[in-house]
Amino acid sequence: MSANTDPDHRWIAICMGTGCTSSASPEVGDALVEELKSQGLDEEIEVRRTGCFGFCEQGPIMVVYPDETFYTRVSPRQVKSIVESHLVGGEPVEKLLYKDPGSADRIEKWHEIGFYRKQQRILLGNCGVIDPENIDHYLARDGYAALDKVLSEMTPEQVIDEVTAARLRGRGGAGFPAGVKWGFARKTQDWPKYVICNADEGDPGAFMDRSVLEGDPHSVIEGMIIAGYAIGAQSGYLYCRAEYPLAIQRLGIALDQARQHGLLGEDILGSGFSYDIIIKEGAGAFVCGEETALMASIEGERGQPRPRPPYPAVAGLWDQPSNVNNVKTYAYVPRVIMNGAEWFKSLGTESSPGTAVFALTGMVNRTGLIEVPMGITLREIIYDVGGGIPNNRQFKAIQTGGPLGGCLPEAYLDIPVDFDSLQKAGAVMGSGGMVIADETTCMVEFAKFFMRFTCDESCGKCPPCRIGSIRMLEILERITEGEGKQSDLEEIRWLAEGMQRGSLCALGQLAPQPVISTLQHFEAEYRAHIEDRRCPAGKCTALINFTIVAELCTGCMVCARNCASNAITGNKKEPHVIDPDLCERCGLCAEVCNFDAVLITSPR
Ligand SMILES: Cc1cc2nc3c(=O)[nH]c(=O)nc-3n(C[C@H](O)[C@H](O)[C@H](O)COP(=O)(O)O)c2cc1C
Ligand code: SF4
Ligand code: SF4
Ligand code: SF4
Question: Computed from CA positions of residues 476, 478, 480, 485, in that sequence, does the dihedral angle turn out positive or negative?
């Protein structure tokens, strides 16, 4: 099927990203095709299986074009009513339109939903629009035009100059300028050279790269071919974790289509430049995202980091000059080449041009994948895009950059979000994970979660990381169990310094950051655990008790029915009581009580 670009063309996009697929979007798509056929509309209305819209919690998502009507949580059974009421009758199905939490109004068009209003979808511009398995859709949106331009009009040096002038910074974490890195690899006079795409994406909760690969694989491939031409490589490796089967499948399809169109392989577009890309599946270890470990893994070795220098640009894969970039970095390249460095610099901030893609999650009303201009404030992300904190609770902190990132309290909500200002504040862009904590989050518990991840994922090569992270986790566990010592905070700081200084790779060097940043901003909370045996957020089970306030309890019995430990007793319409010896402190009674009658007290 070719891509119809007529603005009046009627078509329906159904998300086939991992999120929507797991909530039955393929069945919704099949039902839609069937229904259109039975109504005789299948010739007139196209059904397009697209990539992710980012708003996965609302899936399966369906958008009717050209009117842009946004349907959420569509089930196969509801397809008939959409076809009959909307497509035949011209009347959108009200109850399937998006409704903001706490608001009575349904919102019809997808760009009018708060979640999308402040977004600027450039990198994700094709996700949710094109069928990623159909190269014609990509070609119809100027796909491979940048490659054509590069091969027919530009020298490799000009390509590198353009990417450098755009100040495109790598989106894998550290934000190193892509053009400068390409320049280093070009300069090394040794062949063969390799282009490597880092699609390991091991941060818990992050799925930015996966979405780009699933929804717009050709843009990554095109960026990698351009990088190959620029540095003088003939092969590229796309290292993607095996837990991303859909991304790998779509990449395979896209690579085949690119080969069939003469965009990969021998003598690309008759330019004399030959280049091909191999997919390498990673086994899913976080450390394999570190570039030297990644290359060891491609070589068939155990994925462990090695010292740098030499940097990959000098001696990388099989000791040959190599260029490693993140998925998003490559995907920006065709856009930079087509629209020019000045266009790219007009977006975002002076030192961090362009947009940033985040996975917004945690205690926030609207969660999902977002693309926003660099320079937007944290407050705008949390309150305008994310819709604020659920249940009118108080915001407490935001963790950016995943397990190697940092955490910022309310005082930082108005800082602009870009590589440098986040770093200055003690957090980082990292890969783009953003977790919101509200007043009910215990910051010591929060830090413990990230440290446990580091302990599991440390490759064990160097003692400061291997042993330091375990010792730090033990201290955090002790504190949350009410066994903390006065000396613990000093010991945490001492261990952190040792890990930062003595670890070989950034995993060990940055792992203490979530702990150190929570300690910096929430030291009083740590001290309450240690000195008063008290958890101010009421979360650490060893330090809290659940009791029922007799005056508020209506005796509805809901809590007793939900308590798996049979710790709650009482007659109907009479105040209930919790037996502290039987109570497991799971917190369910407080959650289900509609009368706020369950009180959490700390210390016990
Ligand atoms: C423990 C660890 C994990 C990493 N994981 C990733 C990853 O999943 N994806 C990624 O692009 N970069 C990751 N990085 C950063 C890479 O080592 C490298 O800097 C990056 O791929 C370079 O690409 P960029 O310049 O486009 O950002 C990781 C680094 C460390 C230390
Ligand atoms: S810092 Fe940690 S992950 Fe990195 S090489 Fe050392 S032990 Fe391995
Ligand atoms: S759910 Fe609340 S009101 Fe109902 S019995 Fe339990 S404590 Fe009382
Ligand atoms: S906290 Fe859990 S175990 Fe304890 S009384 Fe409530 S529901 Fe039962």
Answer: negative
